[in-house]
Amino acid sequence: MNIVPIVFAFDNNLVFPACVCISSLLMNAKDDTFYDIFILHSVHISLKKEELDKIPQYYKNCRIQYRQVDSTFDDSFEIRGITTSAYYRLLIPELIPEYDKILYSDVDVIFRSDLSEFYTDIDLANYYVAGVNSLSHLVPEYKRYYIDKLHLNPEKIIYSGNLIINSKKIKENHLIPLFKEQAKNNYKFQDMDILNIVCKDNILYLSPDFCLSTLISQASIYNRMTILGTVVKRIKLYNELIANV
What pLDDT does 240 receive? Predict the structure, then answer.
């Protein structure tokens, strides 16, 4: 049995999407994969767990646990309708000490395959976190933001919506206080910017099949290409990028 720990964080506004997301995860699980699911939520709310607690009744290859998050990020910057729950992933090594390595996912995701190979086969020994490159350098607005505002290389920015986290290394090197300190700033992409700032030069770049998200839509908007052509070019660009990282 392959045990794969995975974390989600949300409030009552996203319970239904979370149920859909988690169900898709379990529907695509291999017979020998067991998902140990953790849900983070604010200590200030009574999370509506009724529908969530029904999920293990339909899918026996999982268990669901809940962890409350204190007031650490209550006053943190919110933008684009993204609430302070987005910051909770930064506390995962503290909140879930059972695992040295753990997955995180946002709930606006539909899983199409099993995650056990990503979890077991990817070696994070020398990295704090693994994620998919956002290709922000291909979006002029984002490129300027990362160069001018954050002084980061826009070619090395990862999404924070789907991550593999090296909790052990993060705790050993005391990154949690750095995350909390950075959360006092009003970053445009909130937790995503914080992760890229603090974990800079210790990030493992994964292939886009781990988190496809906005690759196609951004390419079609900014490069004015057909969808098929966009996919082909993005994969080539991505392979060239990670080869030079």
Answer: 63
Q: Are 134 and 159 in contact (CB under 8 A)?
A: yes
Total-model pTM: 0.87
Cβ within 8 Å of residue 125, ≥6 positions away: 166, 169
Phi, psi angles (nearest 5°) of residue 134: -80, -10
The whole-number pLDDT of residue 238 equals 57
b/e map 207-245, b = 16+ CB within 10 Å: ebebbebebbebbbeeeebeeeebbeebeebbeebbeee
Residue 130 forms beta bridges with which residues?
164, 204
| Backbone dihedral angles phi then psi of residue 97, each to the nearest 5 degrees | -75, -5
Answer whether 102's CB lies under 8 Å from 96's CB: yes
Question: pLDDT (tens digit, 9 = 90+) per residue, 18-76?
Answer: 999 999 999 999 999 999 999 999 999 999 999 999 999 999 999 999 999 999 998 89
Q: Is the CB of residue 230 less than 8 Å from the CB of residue 220?
A: yes
User: Are the CB atoms for 31 and 23 separated by under 8 Å?
Assistant: no
- Which whole-number Å values give the CA distances from 95 to 9, 88, 107, 209, in the listed order? 12, 9, 19, 28
What residue ranges of the chain have pLDDT lower than 70? 213-245
The span from the CA of 88 to the CA of 9, in Å, is 7
